[in-house]
Amino acid sequence: MSTGQSDIAAVSTAEGLPPTGNPRTRGVVGRYAVYAALADVSLTGGIWMLYLQHRGFSLGQIGLAEAAFHLAPVVFELPSGSFADVLGRKWSLAIGPALAAVAMLLMLRVDSVWLMVVAMFINGSAYAFRSGAGQAYLYDTLKADGRSGIFTKIMGRLFSLMYLIIALTTWLGGVMAERSFAWPYALGAAIAIFAAVWAALLPEPARERSEHRSIVRTIGEATVVLRTHPELRGLTAFGTALATAMTLISLYSQVIYADRGLDTGTIGFIIGIVFLFTASGTWLAARISGRVSFARWAAPTVLLVAILGVCMARLPFVVLIPLYFLTEFVLGVLETMFSNRFNQDTPSEQRATVLSIQGFLFSLTMIWAFPLFGFAAERIGWTLPFVVSGGVLIAAWMFWLSQTRLSRPPRSQAA
């Protein structure tokens, strides 16, 4: 192993990633971990809604901007996933942070609704190019080394790293925003550009490829995979509903906390601590998944998310904040279990595209759910919108359970 590879392996070990069989694979995983750390910097994640309110935009206008963010994945999610499958995972990973940098620089100059909408659309495009490609890159890297069995453990460590980075940088962004909102946006753009360059230098993992593949054909094959795999179909619906419910909670919590008298720095600190609990859940996911099944862990997670949403604007902080922390810990465990279960059942040739379908459906939902949620909250309060969101989540979880039963062979065949 070269000196550079030794340094990379040391980075991987320092981050707590479990060892892989091949030293080269270990080096690639370490290099990908560095990319993930750079790309997951979230200096603006805890303050962007407050920033737009500071610039004079209403909740309805901000909801329109968030809808534009999610319109981009509706347009690009499936093509970007197929782009990763056909032309290469690393190029999709590189385009994501490059677009994020452009979006942050535009946000620095935002002075109209239309510029805000354009910036958020570009930021949504960045999300689309990263969505699915990262997991597909890691899974195929391990699979090429015959080590796909440790995907859950490594993905859990990477999720932990991601949430630790998000926690620290969210808090730091809140502190910087108290001096000037320009600081987190400018620094975030610089880091995103560095992440794009780093991704372009990653090696492309060896994987199964069909000759003469096209993006349109790959999308068609991915939809066939979902049609013929009931559990994947159920997981996609459940994952979409869960992501939507938690996104509504996490984004509107900024406004709820501000309405209840908290300053920007305190809000950034709370959101940062929330991500620390998510990180601890992802770190322990491999150990917990060996003792508790995905189905048994999903049930209390769904109930906690539904209860948290309904109580966001009502409970005193001394009860609400610990409940939020507990929910995020449980979600961290479930996220890692979910990722492993989804990747195990998905063919390599369409993996990034199939993973992107869930992102596509999530964004399609958020286009109308986020502005409608804000519109309703301004007129009837927060409770009823969160009750509806929780009810949809429970329905999606029950749909996944029904699809899981369809995937089981009849008892005579099993015997």
Strand content is under 5%
Number of strands: 0
CATH superfamily: MFS general substrate transporter like domains
Portion in helices? over 70%
Question: What does this protein look like?
Answer:
- The structure is a single chain.
- With 415 residues, the chain is mostly helical.
- It has a single domain, classed as MFS general substrate transporter like domains (Growth Hormone, Chain: A).
- 81% of the residues lie in helices and 0% in strands.
- It is built from 17 helices and no strands.
- The longest helix is centred in the middle third of the chain and has 30 residues, at 230-259.
- The model is unreliable at 1-20 and 409-415 (pLDDT under 50).
Provide keyphrases for this structure.
415 residues, mainly alpha, Growth Hormone, Chain: A, 17 helices, globular, disordered C terminus
Topology, element by element:
Layout: H1 3-14, H2 23-39, H3 48-54, H4 59-87, H5 89-108, H6 113-130, H7 133-144, H8 151-179, H9 182-200, H10 215-228, H11 230-259, H12 264-289, H13 294-311, H14 317-344, H15 351-380, H16 383-407, H17 411-414
Helix pairs in contact: 1-2, 2-7, 2-9, 4-5, 4-6, 4-10, 4-15, 5-6, 5-7, 5-9, 7-15, 8-12, 8-14, 10-11, 10-15, 11-13, 11-15, 11-16, 12-14, 13-14, 13-16, 15-16
